[in-house]
Amino acid sequence: IVLTQSPATLSLSPGERATLSCRASQSVGSFLVWYQQKPGQAPRLLIYDASNRATGIPARFSGSGSGTDFTLTISSLEPEDFAVYYCQQRSNWPLTFGGGTKVEIK
Amino acid sequence: QVQLVQSGAEVKKPGASVKVSCKASGYTFTNYGITWVRQAPGQGLEWMGWITAHNGYTKYAQRLQGRVTMTTDTSTTTAYMELRSLRSDDTAVYYCARDGSDTAAAGNLDYWGQGTLVTVSS
Q1: B58 contact A CB<8A
Q2: What is the rounded CA–CA span in Å between residue A88 and residue A90?
Q3: Contact (Cβ atoms closer than 8 angstroms) between residue A91 and residue A31
Q4: Please, what are the averages of pLDDT over each run of 10 residues along chain A (106 residues)?
């Protein structure tokens, strides 16, 4: 299953809303996961099964969607949110990741 | 607290093998699986495979089949990933991550190791 993330880069200012898209080449149901990765660090689980926030993840992060179209929304960007975001499907083997969206400071 | 601590950086020549370890602590090792993910320099994440800690059942990425072996040692709560016949395009940071213990639960990678840089160069 191929996951396509858009846009590749999102240039926003702190306080703005970020909307990231992940589209699957076939239905993955709700088995879609989102990670955040900062330079030099391991990825961090944000959202699992499309809309469930992982432990300790702030409420400004939310996930939605099902089937083939998914969205990660950051309601109001904090300075620490500028990073790369990856989606990953766990509906079918092999697990696959999207190419990532970089959220950069405008 | 849950921790996954990986072995240190490696430099290998083409054709050699590398074995990366991932020491788990802070949870019941046999109740979970371990997934391995790699990331080439400046690139995205690539799933390599998954192993269940309690019985060693594995699933591997097809493109690595035959070159990769994942194992666990429940006595030391350590997972291992061995990659053979190394090529220059295997140069990457290799991560282990805690995962579900069965196929229904697999794919939510909730804790990650710090990563191990493997450099393949002649």
Answers
A1: no
A2: 7
A3: yes
A4: 97 97 97 97 97 97 98 97 98 96 96
